[in-house]
Amino acid sequence: MKKIKGRMDESILVCAYYGPNGERLIRRGQKLADLLDCPLYVLTVDPLPYDKFDAEKSNYVDRWKELADESDIEEFILIDNEKRPSAKVIAEVARRLNITQIIIGQSPQNRWEEITKGSFANALLREMTFVDVHIVSVDRTIRGVEHDTFEKGVHGFLIKDGEEYRLSFTRSNDDHYDGIFYKEIGTDFNNGVFKFVHNGRTCEVTIADDKVTGLLELPPNYKVEN
What we know:
By secondary structure, this protein is of the alpha/beta class. The chain has 5 helices and 11 strands, in the order βαβαβαβααβββββββ. The strands form 2 sheets. Strands 7-6-8-9-10-11 form a 6-stranded antiparallel sheet, with helices on one face. Strands 3-2-1-4-5 form a 5-stranded parallel sheet, sandwiched between helices.
């Protein structure tokens, strides 16, 4: 039987996503709920149906269910096969449960995701003006880029230079590609990987001494509005 909470004017929702940091977010929520003596809920949202989860994802869900059962958590909520944006689903659950505080995780190196997808935290805040949102830094790994090989990504441009493209950190009036440059650790020159989006598709090229060399795929020229 769940313990009766002393305060019902406050309630907390932890939004956990798959990975080792989900448990850390739940533990953070528990500490805050204990401090406020209020109900705590845990929510995860996934576009796949539950029976399509792989073994790793299923293990995370099982672990979070165990935490909810063994801890003083009101309910663990899994919403699967959900095609709507996660921010809208979270807002809907928050309204239904009268949530006043939400805890989410966000990488400190989220610049690439903000460019390609937009900030999740901002999307959530647009959906809800009635809650406090706590953003917890959970992971310093750049998705798709090894953190022990490259420095933190910086905003840059690929500028057309004759038959080649060169890296620049200044916007140009010429045709160019806008993206993120990940510099190799331990080099004095601009060597690394440049990632950008074209027509909703992520493209990636390698950079050596400011020039594109290992060309994986470069879409036809397009003009970026200044």
